[in-house]
């Protein structure tokens, strides 16, 4: 049980990767800091700490969010999935496997955020959500241009964009594959 909160903190329950975590957090604590500093889930990276690089992207209720700008208290009783929660035992999520197979990383620092964002963008596209480059707001093929637009909030300082786009396209099934993009509850 979490300690009794002070007037500037709250006792919250975070559902992360299928597990409940009870914490007392200062109201100003970001989800990123709660994950990394309080729960030792260090797969999510702190990049710019201003919501501009996407390194801290996680999934909250299967939607991507930059965790450095999300207060931990707002994630109360919502399903949070970090890169640590994507694999099913030793079986990688199809997006993780595509990044590995197609070298969608270099130094790897941005990779957890890129992967979480890629999973969400594939689901958004499958649901028919348009992007800024989708013509006439109609479902468009998941072309490299479309993938780049949908991943534009995730920066890679190494410049692995060509391989990242190829990995996302592969995972999305645009190369003749149609992998299951969701796994059991708790993974996106």
UniProtKB/TrEMBL annotation:
Domain 2Fe-2S ferredoxin-type as annotated: residue spans: 10-86
Pathway assigned in UniProt: Alkaloid degradation; nicotine degradation
Alphabetically ordered keywords of this record: 2Fe-2S, Iron, Iron-sulfur, Metal-binding, Oxidoreductase
Coiled coil segments of this chain: none
GO molecular function, one term: 2 iron, 2 sulfur cluster binding
Entry keyword annotation includes Iron-sulfur: yes
Keyword match Iron-sulfur: yes
Pfam families named among the record's database cross-references: Fer2, Fer2_2
Stored PANTHER family: OXIDOREDUCTASE WITH IRON-SULFUR SUBUNIT, OXIDOREDUCTASE, IRON-SULPHUR BINDING SUBUNIT-RELATED-RELATED
Protein name: (2Fe-2S)-binding protein
Organism expressing this protein natively: Streptomyces albidoflavus
